[in-house]
Amino acid sequence: RHAGTPLPTWPKGADGMPMPCSRTEVLQGTVDSWPGSCLMRVNLTALGGVSCRDACLFNTSCSSWAVQGEKGHCYHGAGVPCALGSGWPTAVRAGERLQHGEVQVLMDISRVKIYGLRSLGRCPRGEDKECSERCRVWCYASMRCRYWQYGGRGCMVDAAGKGAPAYADGLVGAVATSMLDEPLVAGEYLRHFCRNEDIIHGVKTAAELARMQESGVQVLLEDARGAAAQGIRLGWPFAALLLAVAVLCLLCCYLARGSRPSTPRSARVLQDPSGGGAVSKGPLLVQPKAWQGIRKQG
Length: 298
What we know:
This protein is an alpha+beta fold and about 300 residues long. It has four helices and 13 strands. The chain has helices at about 50-55, 130-140, 205-215, 220-260, and strands at about 1-5, 25-30, 40-45, 65-70, 75, 90-100, 100-110, 110-115, 120, 145-150, 155, 175, 185-195. The protein has a six-stranded mixed β-sheet, with helices on one face. A five-stranded antiparallel β-sheet has the order 2-6-4-5-3. Strand 4 and strand 5 (about 75) form a beta hairpin. It is globular. The two termini are about 20 Å apart. Mean pLDDT is about 65; it is low at about 1-5, about 160-165, about 165-170, about 215-240 and about 260-298.
């Protein structure tokens, strides 16, 4: 956490999304008794050999991950509501809430009411201090969260697609809590940042990783179907041309064979040049590695 001193903004990739940052902090984890029973948005079905955790580390839009159920399904998302309410009913094997990069606290807003925030739920009375901390952690983990407040209405945060603060670029016009019936317990106005030297280069952009995670191998299937459809659209003229080329090749092979001395049938065995015996030829299927080149952060 940094306060006061202006710090660099977060460098973005060609797609405009924040690039992966080598500074990643575990805010909550199942090893520390965090329940992790959150409602996740994305169920990853094709990780390409990368762990559920690593896939989240290299995607700045992923604030939490969890491996759930008997089959060990991998889930990524914002993680709502987790400990603030009734979350995922399935047993969680492992999970973490991550903070990508660093956080700079611009202002304490525990005495200023910010309108237009999203509610993540509330805790039973008497647990305000603990739930306030959970609210802060959720905002620190979410790249799009700049405001969080905890008070009588529970945990209130800003999140894209779920409304926006009325004063996104400042606090002009906000209402002092002394004028409200429900006082606030705590709140912060903050920004996320990653130093230039901590940016991870040479990997796919966050948006590409997110699309790959959400679609999985379906991307490969769609490409194959598209190629097949393209072949069908070429129609009979193209097929006739291929047939003519094949016939011409066969004719050339026949003429060349007839001009050479006959080889005894018993000697026509394809031998391994290294002396390993007969060679077995067949189609070679190369499975693309979707996550090749990604560096694992410890």
